[in-house]
Write a structure and sequence with these properties.
Blueprint: E1 17-20, E2 23-27, E3 45-53, H1 66-76, E4 78-86, H2 88-118, H3 121-141, E5 146-150, E6 154-158, H4 162-166
Antiparallel strand pairs: 1-2, 2-6, 3-4, 5-6
Length: about 180
């Protein structure tokens, strides 16, 4: 790997960040390049993300009861903390998306209130739809990266810009 001004020096001359197709693979202790994870421009902001992942097979347990699933998911999940860089444009777009999400939530609460005050039940359904839409909008638009897998040492992330990934060495799994 050639030297790059935004990459921290690797520990013990070994890289700690790689790419595997469209995923970023990193050690839990790795420091990501000070670049925007969405467009690869120089970063202006660092966001600390606490990521949690469990095996997708655990979702089957929801059929047995949500509480049972939640308890097992909390016990069996793996965690990682990652500092993600964002450029000004993506940081402001994220703030805008948060504002839109909270605006929709506040609008839904207002519609619930008006529905009860005027005894107009159709507004209750509209309020529920606006609330659901706001939550879905927020989940989709404000998520920066998603953990594909986390184990005791490594983190696999999705949602990273291709140009950002192209500057990383290819992951060579020992398995």
């Amino acid at each position: 790997m050639t030297e790059h001004p935004y990459f921290p020096p690797p520990l013990h001359n070994m890289p700690s960040i790689w790419r595997k197709k469209s995923q970023l693979v990193m050690t839990k202790q790795a420091v990501l390049p000070y670049r925007c994870i969405k467009c690869n421009a120089p970063a202006d902001t660092l966001l600390r993300r606490n990521l949690r992942w469990h095996h997708p097979l655990l979702y089957v347990l929801i059929a047995g009861g949500v509480l049972f699933y939640v308890i097992l998911a909390l016990v069996l999940s793996k965690n990682a903390t990652v500092n993600i860089g964002l450029c000004k444009a993506h940081a402001s777009a994220r703030k805008r998306d948060f504002a839109i999400m909270w605006g929709l939530v506040v609008l839904s609460v207002f519609l619930f209130y008006v529905s009860v005050a005027t005894d107009e039940m159709s507004l209750l359904l509209v309020g529920a739809a606006v609330l659901l839409g706001g939550v879905i909008y927020g989940l989709v638009r404000t998520r920066l990266v998603a953990p594909r897998k986390i184990d005791d040492n490594l983190v696999w992330l999705e949602g990273v810009n291709k140009n950002y990934l192209d500057e990383l060495p290819e992951w060579r799994d020992a398995a």
